[in-house]
Amino acid sequence: MRDEAIVELLGVWKIYHMGRRGRITVEALRGVDLAVRRGEFLAVMGPSGSGKSTLLHLMGCLDRPTEGKVLFEGTDVSTMRSAALARIRNRRVGFVFQSFNLSPNLTALGNVELPMVFAGVPRRERLARARELLSRVGLRERERHLPAELSGGEQQRVAIARALANFPDLLLADEPTGNLDSETGHGVLSLLSETNVEGVTVVVVTHDPEVATAAKRRLRIRDGHIVEASDA
Ligand SMILES: Nc1ncnc2c1ncn2[C@@H]1O[C@H](COP(=O)(O)OP(=O)(O)O)[C@@H](O)[C@H]1O
Ligand SMILES: [Mg+2]
User: Fold this and answer.
1) Interval 23-65: pLDDT, tens
2) Does the beta carbon of 22 sit less than 6 angstroms from any atom of ligand 1?
3) Does the beta carbon of 19 sit less than 6 angstroms from any atom of ligand 1?
């Protein structure tokens, strides 16, 4: 089925408990219904604190909903145990964050290899795949550099290479150009678009109009609700 959803949220609530004895509650998502179709390039926009990152974390099996269901490739993951969720994340999902989140003590090559280490990929294969990915993002000659020895744009390209290491079905990016100047951000956006053209489903949280325009579908979140979904 080509129109099958890769990830689907059904009546999803996420409530965080804070403060003494968890008495303060924050309703980060309030009844979200959303289907992301295979091959989509979806942009999620909305003000700070509206629930965008929470939504992305649930889509990527980083967290579970308080109420409702999350179906990942047709499987209900909303009540799965942490180890099972971690396995799905490692094999099926790639994450790219605003602040890059690279391991500071690993080289660019080591960072791209890391998800493959967790997946048990043999060393030779890992090295070949990591080098191929670094070439793709234009950083083959930087493979021995540590994150601190790379520019912001270079670090984000390493993060994208890392996210693609295990051939994910779904690439999730949380404000990936938020810390980059516009020209560098443009390069990162091109990589996301190419990745989508190659068949990976891409969901990107963004404030960047250029990123939103490049996406094939846009939706807006406000106070934990999806308030508008428009097709390009
Ligand atoms: N781990 C957490 N514990 C408590 N509150 C949280 C947590 N993560 C997010 N929140 C709260 O949930 C709401 C939505 O947060 P978030 O999804 O990060 O929004 P956005 O990414 O749109 O800025 C905010 O009010 C935020 O403070
Ligand atoms: Mg956020």
Assistant:
1) 899 999 999 999 999 999 999 999 999 999 999 999 999 999 9
2) no
3) no
Closest of 201, 193, 137 to residue 168, by C-alpha: 201
Matching CATH number, 5-231, of 3.40.50.1980, 3.40.50.1010, 3.40.50.300, 3.40.718.10:
3.40.50.300
- Calculate how far, in angstroms, residue 79's C-alpha sits from the geometric centre of ligand 1: 21
Does ligand 1 have an atom closer than 6 angstroms to the CB of 53?
A: yes
Are residues 217 and 188 in contact, defined by beta-carbon separation less than 8 angstroms? no
**pLDDT for residue 2 is more than 80:** no
Residue 51 CB–ligand 1 contact under 6 Å = yes
In 103-229, where does DSSP find H-type helix? 108-118, 123-136, 152-163, 182-197, 209-214
Q: 162 CA distance to ligand 2 centroid (A)?
A: 21
Helix (H, G, I), strand (E, B) or coil at 22: helix
